[in-house]
Amino acid sequence: MTADLALSQDCLDPAQHHRAVLGLADRIGQRLRGERKFAGRLTLTVRYADRSSTTRTRALPEPTDHSPAVAATALGLLTSLGLQRARVRALVLRADDLRPVGRAYRQLSMDPGDTRARAVEAAADRARRRFGQEAVCPAALAD
C-alpha cells in the first residue's frame, strides 16, 4: 500500500518535508482502516532534484492502522535521513507486512487517551466517507 507526493518544484524547507510526510501517513492510515488491514513495516523513499533517491525502512512497534502511530514512525524515518539542504522532488511512503485486522495483535492500553484518539479517528473516517476526503484533516495539514 503506497502513498506518494510529487512536488511541483524542488523543496528545500524541512517544515514542508515534515508536513508532506504527515499527509502521506494520514492517507496510509485511512487506507489501512478502509481495507481493514494493519501494517507491520513502513518504507520512506525521498527522491531528489538530481533524480537520485534514498530509502529507509522501519518496523512499527506493533502492527497498526492508527494514523498517529504511522505518522510517528514515518517522521522517525524522515529524521533518520538527516536532510539539511536537500532539494526534494518527491516523497513515497509504503506500508508493508500487511495483515488482516482479525489476524493482527494490539497491545491493550490502560491510557484513556488512546481509546479517545481511536474513537476520534473512527469519527473522522465516517465524516470523510459522508462529506468527502477534505471534510476532516489533521490540524498540522490545515491551511
Describe the structure.
The protein has helices at 14-34, 67-81, 112-131; strands at 2-11, 37-48, 53-64, 88-96, 99-100. It starts with a strand and ends in a 12-residue tail after the last helix. The protein has one domain (2-109): 2-Layer Sandwich (Dna Ligase, domain 1). The protein has 143 residues and is α+β, with helices and mostly antiparallel strands. A hairpin with a 4-residue loop joins strand 2 (37-48) and strand 3. It is 39% helix and 31% strand. The chain is built from three helices and five strands, in the order βαββαββα. The longest helix has 21 residues, at 14-34. The protein is globular. Strands 1, 2, 3, 4 and 5 form a five-stranded antiparallel beta sheet that branches.
Record keyword descriptors for this entry:
five-stranded antiparallel beta sheet, 3 helices, single chain, 143 residues, Dna Ligase, domain 1
Q: How far apart, in Å, are the first and last alpha carbons?
A: 27 Å
CATH topology: Dna Ligase, domain 1
Strand-residue proportion: 25-35%
Tell me the overall shape.
globular
Q: Helical region count? A: 3
Radius of gyration: 15 Å
CATH class category name: Alpha Beta
Give a summary of the structure in a few sentences.
The protein is an alpha+beta fold. The chain has helices at residues 14-34, 67-81, 112-131; strands at residues 2-11, 37-48, 53-64, 88-96, 99-100.
Give me the secondary-structure topology:
Blueprint: E1 2-11, H1 14-34, E2 37-48, E3 53-64, H2 67-81, E4 88-96, E5 99-100, H3 112-131
Antiparallel strand pairs: 1-4, 2-3, 2-4, 2-5
